[in-house]
Amino acid sequence: MTPDEEAIAEKDLTSSGLLALVIAGLQAEAPELLIGEAVAMPDCALAHAPASIKRGLLTKAHEARGADFILGLGQFIKGIGFDPVLHVLLRPAPPMVMAGKFRRFEQFTHSRHRCDVTETENGLDVRRYAVSGPPPLAAENLLIAGLLKALLEEIGCEEVTVTTGEAPFAGFSLHWRRFVQRDVTDPLGLAEKRGREPLKVYGVDETRPLARRVVTLLSGDLGRNWSCKEIAMELRLSSRTLQRRLKEDGTSLSTIIRAVRMREACQLLTGSDLKLTEIGYWCGFSDSPHFSREFRRALGVPPVLYRQAAA
Fold it and tell me: What pLDDT does residue 232 have?
């Protein structure tokens, strides 16, 4: 890296949960690599942690143990229990939908690193890059490849393999033999809360049959970037018929999506200890500024003040 690139990389932020995953993996599988390192488990009540710590640990582990070891660290995601980000990523949906959520996760949690994902037959092709400054290191790319492999296995992909090619592994592919979608879970009991607070005057009347079907579908996986075509297909309607019938009911798909997101955000802000970034991601917003902007536009106050007022 050039001095300027090093300065940029030093200011990077990453997910505190991802750093915790790396540390937990090293503690379990290679504790000797942590000797002499002034590293503490990050406070996961905070959304971000210095990316330089994660980068240093991964580089050291990569040099000592090799690429397969870094790929294997992703498997530790399976043992952490409930996590709001994981809950969104692991909602029952096809692999490409999960990959889209992962791309949005990076926008929320990493200051520079992103990935492009292309769907293939029983597979995904991934390209890692930086929006500015130096590109991700080989070990960082391997970690993401291993993490995506574990996530694909968790949503129902069987016999997942990773092909990384040559260092720095900025392009890699994941393939699976078949995909069997898993069941839905509701660890925070939000279905009951939605039932107690149906949408009637806020953007949509949920008592109308079609609106109720749309609201139920969206609420089941609000972190998914639903398109009109996808929703219409799930409801066995054409896109034009869906839009026309919603217009006849005095609403629109964009209005319903906004109303469902706001209801979920309000319920999580007042009924959970989730961080603002986690709530924004959970509710399907593209990044933290988008969440704050849309929340303020809808309710007149930012999310943090809404939570304080309800305390």
Answer: 96
Fold of the 3-179 domain: H-NOX domain (3.90.1520)
Distance between CA atoms of 142 and 182, rounded to whole angstroms?
26
Cβ atoms of residues 293 and 303 within 8 Å: no
CATH classification code of 190-310: 1.10.10.60
Domain with CATH 3.90.1520.10 in the chain: 3-179
| pTM value > 0.70 | yes
Peptide bond into 94 cis (omega under 30): no
**pLDDT tens, position by position, 92-133:** 789 999 999 999 888 887 778 999 999 999 999 999 999 988
Q: Strand 123-130 vs strand 171-175: parallel, antiparallel, or unpaired?
A: antiparallel
Q: Cβ contacts of residue 158 below 8 Å, gap of 6+?
A: 176, 177, 178, 179, 180
Parallel, antiparallel or unpaired: strands 161-163 and 157-158: unpaired
In this predicted structure, what is the pLDDT of residue 7?
Answer: 59
Query: Tell me, what's the pLDDT at 47?
Result: 63
Phi first, then psi: give them for residue 75, nearest 5 degrees.
-65, -20
Helices (H), 197-252: 209-220, 228-234, 239-248
> Whose structure tokens read 């999310």?
303
Longest dimension (CA), the chain: 67
Would you give the distance in Å from CA 238 to the centre of its chain?
A: 29
Q: Check: CB of residue 58 under 8 Å from CB of residue 22.
A: yes
> Which residues in the chain come in under a pLDDT of 50?
none
Number of H helices, E strands in the chain: 15, 8
